[in-house]
Amino acid sequence: xxxxxxxxxxxxxxxxxxxxxxxxxxxxxxxxxxxxxxxxxxxxxxxxxxxxxxxxxxxxxxxxxxxxxxxxxxxxxxxxxxxxxxxxxxxxxxxxxxxxxxxxxxxxxxxxxxxxxxxxxxxxxxxxxxxxxxxxxxxxxxxxxxxxxxxxxxxxxxxxxxxxxxxxxxxxxxxxxxxxxxxxxxxxxxxxxxxxxxxxxxxxxxxxxxxxxxxxxxxxxxxxxxxxxxxxxxxxxxxxxxxxxxxxxxxxxxxxxxxxxxxxxxxxxxxxxxxxxxxxxxxxxxxxxxxxxxxxxxxxxxxxxxxxxxxxxxxxxxxxxxxxxxxxxxxxxxxxxxxxxxxxxxxxxxxxxxxxxxxxxxxxxxxxxxxxxxxxxxxxxxxxxxxxxxxxxxxxxxxxxxxxxxxxxxxxxxxxxxxxxxxxxxxxxxxxxxxxxxxxxxxxxxxxxxxxxxxxxxxxxxxxxxxxxxxxxxxxxxxxxxxxxxxxxxxxxxxxxxxxxxxxxxxxxxxxxxxxxxxxxxxxxxxxxxxxxxxxxxxxxxxxxxxxxxxxxxxxxxxxxxxxxxxxxxxxxxxxxxxxxxxxxxxxxxxxxxxxxxxxxxxxxxxxxxxxxxxxxxxxxxxxxxxxxxxxxxxxxxxxxxxxxxxxxxxxxxxxxxxxxxxxxxxxxxxxxxxxxxxxxxxx
Length: 684
Prior knowledge:
This protein is of the alpha/beta class. The protein has helices at 2-6, 8-21, 26-49, 59-83, 90-100, 104-153, 159-211, 216-249, 258-267, 270-284, 291-324, 333-336, 340-344, 361-364, 372-387, 460-466, 473-487, 489-492, 495-516, 523-535, 543-553, 560-570, 572-579, 592-600, 615-631, 645-656; strands spanning 352-356, 394-398, 406-411, 414-420, 426-429, 441-444, 451-455, 469-471, 584-590, 602-605, 608-611, 640-643, 663-666, 675-682. The longest helix is centred in the first third of the chain and has 53 residues, at 159-211.
């Protein structure tokens, strides 16, 4: 049964081809006409109930099949009309008699009007919309791809979600490109229907007169009924398909079906119904205007508008009651803080906190339709999969002292980042290869410091065509928050988080945890080692390797900085994957003289080792580094400095205060299969 269903379309198309060649009896032709009408109704209703065009992506192919089906029915009906004295079945006769009403001229006029409405109004409009949509969809593809890449790199979406979005963009472009060509089938079908109708009528009259036995008036009457009936029984389904074509190419972005959208959007403006009813009443006062119909319709509009308006007010009151509540008044501030436990709430500090101005509240508040929390949850999952650490919850607060469009990110109660967002605008980032300019409000993207513009919604597609990366306001906010969390991840790793990580490892390797913690290293020192890794962007997902390395070296090495270096070397595959590209890694190296200077400047005391380097030498080193970075800016997106294992940690601390974005790796942290390409060298 399943195989039959899977091959039913192929069998149906073969049957359509056979219908063009093999004559059909009247009964079978009636059945095929009814199937054609039913199929067109199903297609029309399907386009009304889908939320987006890609839900009915088979429509362009279906358009070709239905057009071919109608043409084969036209050929079969023409064969019967011309060979069976105008008798081509009950469906054609019924349509012809019903429309003609005894007047052949009226029937032909009605038929011509239906064909012209379909051809000039509906089909022509659908064809133009499909053509324009296909062109703009293809032009906007690069910008949409860049926006997906930006969301993926910032951790807002997962790799699976990015792949799904890219696939949808490609499918959307293919769909509208196919629709652009498929609308030509409907146009050609309209032209052919007029030609076939003319052939049926003229050919039928000629055959009827040659065969004899009937008067000219009877021949015209017979073939008028069959001709108009045949035309209508074909064109009414064609009109439904054309309407479905127009609906599917004019569908705007929506979260509901067309029925729900129309109902909800008309209901959202009840005052419009009331005004329309008043206008109808005024029109009804015009002399000789049909008053019963006009006043009845006006009363219906006014009644519906009043009920909707009254219902909206009740909803507002209910919503206010939900917010304010009808319970007993809250205790006074003095009474509340008499309980000493309530005072402790004042000194609690949230790990991550975001304060927003009042204009940004709808953007982050779920009650106002914002999906900020859902996006944070997606980032938390992505960050956990990538870095092996779970980001704590983000506390949201509104702050009346901030500018309306401003937001502040706080870590443990202190501000670490700030930015501004225009809610009704989109942020257009300049990737450096624009083909045109759009007007907007100049700004700097808060997360990466890229020159950008705030543009209005109507300029979004144009900006994508010009090559801008266009990001919505919520994505700008999430990107900035995610970058702040990545930079300060080492501060967010608490003892409680560490305990949960260890408990998670115990499920698979309890013996390892018991051996290392606290026998070899305390939880406090383990937290420092993990923090050192996170500070430099090294994932701590492979906790078993980290613990095994600490277990190997921790007995003889007590310095957490040195233990961190050993752990980094054990994670060389992870480090290589993170910073290499295409099997090679591009770096800036240190000369032997520079490494000797650093080694000679290392001092040790009871608290550990530190670097004591001459300020003049330090200034020369930093100057050389900045010069190399500037020179290689086009080849190195992220500056990577390669050193010997002993020097790496000290040189990294030296750069922290001058160039914290630089990545410092040692030779022992790069996998042997990776090719090292030295683009520059730092020397004094």
